[in-house]
Amino acid sequence: MKKSILFISCEEAHHICDKSQYGEASIWEKFKLNLRLSWCRISRAYTKKNRALTKAVNNSDVDCLKDNERNDLKTKFDSQLHNQN
Amino acid sequence: MPKHQIDPNKWINAYSDYLFNYTITRVNDREIAKDLVQDTFFAGLKSMKNFKGEASERTWLISILKRKIIDHYRKINSNKGKAEVRMSYSNNESEGDWLEERVADPFDKTAEDDIENTELGLAIHDCLSKLPEKQAKVFKLKTILGYETEAICNELDITASNLWVIIHRARVAMASCMEKTWF
Questions:
Q1: Of B106, B132, B135, B138, most Cβ neighbours within 10 A?
Q2: Which residue of B has its CA nearest to A74?
Q3: Is it the case that residue A57 has pLDDT exceeding 80?
Q4: Cβ–Cβ of B171/A53 closer than 8 Å?
């Protein structure tokens, strides 16, 4: 089937919506997403949930260890565990 | 038989992020938070025999961490007491305004906001712990640590389209989990 320039599938809409949560969707992609949102209930529901998740993460004080920090911690912990056994 | 078993081999992967997030919201310093989490794990190892299995491992580690955080504040407060410099607020320029200047800014974040944001952070970690390992890792790198797509692809040796598929699955699972526990 020929791919439309303007009309996108639900999967593509979800993909653009995901990218736009990280500011990585182009203006053209956002336009196509908005066009889809104007008539697709499923895409609208997905976008609503996705935005709520982004808002929750941004509003929270959530933080985590970087890979090198975790590896460092794991090395020290493993050595302590080894000494104890 | 105890309800929960102890297995220190999985502590770092399973609980380090949760404990770190718990700590950093209370001490506001990355290095101190890392040290306190490390001390907690070490203390946990030493007192493994005291684990009765009535609470989960995470709850037990959090109870150790809480004591470590209290000890940290006790320590810095006792240091402060030794080096206290008493300053007099009143001077000619600011005379009469002291009370007004000390009133809390109503537009500033309130204590309730802070508590809610901290709890929200822990709820996010709860949901993250339910994701498959790879999804959780990609979600953390991209959403929490804010890594560029290319950097994650290079680090995990995956393609960009693969990354977006993982992100999509993680976001669907996270949104559904957060809907049940938070929204």
A1: B138
A2: B12
A3: yes
A4: yes
Residues B126, B130, B135: CA angle, nearest 5 degrees: 110
The one-character DSSP state at B95 is T
Residue B160 touches chain A, beta carbons under 8 Å: no
Task: Give DSSP secondary structure letters for B9-69.
Answer: GGHHHHHHHHHHHHHHHHH--HHHHHHHHHHHHHHHHHTGGG--SSS-HHHHHHHHHHHHH
Q: Does the interface ipTM go beyond 0.85?
A: yes
Spell out which residues of chain A touch residue B176, defining contact as CB-CB under 8 Å.
49
Write out pLDDT tens, residues B27-36: 989 999 999 9
Domains of chain B with bracketed CATH: 1-84 (1.10.1740.10), 112-183 (1.10.10.10)
Interface of A with B in 26-45 (CB under 8 A): none
Instruction: Enumerate residue ranges in chain B where pLDDT < 70.
Output: 1, 80-111, 183
- Between CA B123 and CA B146 the distance in angstroms is 19
Residue B1 is predicted with a pLDDT of 64
